[in-house]
Amino acid sequence: MKKKILVTGGTGYIGSHTTVELIEDGFEVVIIDNLYNSEAVVADRIKEITGIKPQLEVFDLCDQKKLNTFFRKNKNITAIIHFAAYKAVGESVSKPNEYYRNNLVSLINLLDAMKQFHVADMVFSSSCTVYGQPERLPVTEDAPMQPAISPYGNTKQTGEEILRDNCTADKNIKAISLRYFNPIGAHPSGLIGELPRGVPENLVPFITQTASGLRDELKVFGNDYDTPDGSCIRDYLHVVDLAKAHVIAVKRLIEGKNKSTYEIFNLGTGKGVSVLEAIKSFERVTGIKLKYRITGRRAGDIEKIWADPSFANKELGWKTLLTLDEAMQTAWEWEKNIRKKN
Ligand code: WQD
């Protein structure tokens, strides 16, 4: 009998890639998604990749009645991987209450349902944004959280604290928070990838949309930082590597291999890459000369961050295997495929 995993936000970017890896690892997957930032057709694309279409329930996790009805109908959920959340940093500044309500009420509803329906394990989608600008680099999991610079970042910090408090209060709940650095790229099939609504906030979709002619040029937000080439540094990891980490983490909980009821892992390559280096990687793998212009800094950007992934390497037996070039290559293949579809 296959173990069944609930993946919230499973038609989204990281959720869909994780669903593929879960199915390929022998799990059954049920997705809850309100399709706020994704499309139901992603479930069909997952079937094209894996041969199996995940069950998809379309409703909002903030609706506790619907969530409880879901759990009454789906009794054999082994564990939850919780992706569903609003994630646009800029948007969160202009709509703080939407972000606090959506990202926190959905988590609290899920935790209440876990207790009521005896689901013990949750993997939580967190972010390196909780660190702000770390004092020391590479950043380890015990680095202090800096005051959040956006409501989005605050919902990740608060989400982790809510999880930790639930795992402390209720011995039947155990959780792992995965702090992602910068996920990029797409599945090698070219069938799933990042589908930003409107103008992308993130670097790589903006690069690929500029290369495909959808955007006139890429603005590089500042080259006067204290970095080798003046542009910001981030730790870009391939979304397929990131997805695989979720399978390992949920199995750690299911198999009771966790060493405490609440654990945190950084998921990154351990290598910092600047914006200008990322552009060069894209140009190298595609042969396209990217049109970009250096402009002023973007409010809220930190200067540089990259992970110390040694805890995940050691404890999870996970490390990134795919390269920046492979991420750029798959991001470009995905962009060309969605342009064909639209
Ligand atoms: C990366 C670098 C920009 C766009 C955010 C969230 C994080 C996670 C990933 C959700 C920065 C520069 C970008 C552009 C640019 N989100 N840039 N021109 O801000 O590191 O992280 O997204 O999980 O939580 O904080 O990612 O891709 O927006 O920016 O120069 O058009 O690219 O200044 O240095 P970021 P990003």
Care to describe what's here?
The structure is a single chain. This protein has a domain of 214 residues: Rossmann fold (3-Layer(aba) Sandwich), CATH 3.40.50.720. 41% of the residues lie in helices and 17% in strands. It has eleven helices and 13 strands. A seven-stranded parallel β-sheet has the order 3-2-1-4-5-6-11, sandwiched between helices. The structure holds UDP-4-deoxy-4-formamido-beta-L-arabinopyranose (WQD). UDP-4-deoxy-4-formamido-beta-L-arabinopyranose binds next to helix 7 and strand 8.
From the 3D coordinates, which CATH architecture of the domain at 4-185 and 237-268 would you assign?
A: 3-Layer(aba) Sandwich
Helix-strand sequence: EHEHEHEHHEHEEHEEEHEEHEHH
Instruction: List the bound ligands.
Output: UDP-4-deoxy-4-formamido-beta-L-arabinopyranose
- Enumerate how many helices there are, as a single number: 11
CATH class of the domain at 4-185 and 237-268: Alpha Beta
Strand order of the largest sheet: 3-2-1-4-5-6-11
Oligomer category: single chain
Q: Class by helix and strand content? A: alpha/beta
- Which stretches are poorly predicted, pLDDT < 50 over at least 5 residues? none
What is the CATH H-level superfamily of the domain at 4-185 and 237-268? NAD(P)-binding Rossmann-like Domain
Overall mean pLDDT stands at 97
Question: Could you give the distance between the termini?
Answer: 40 Å
- The portion of residues forming beta strands comes to 15-25%
**Biggest beta sheet summary:** 7 strands, parallel
Q: Which percent range fits the helix content?
A: 40-55%
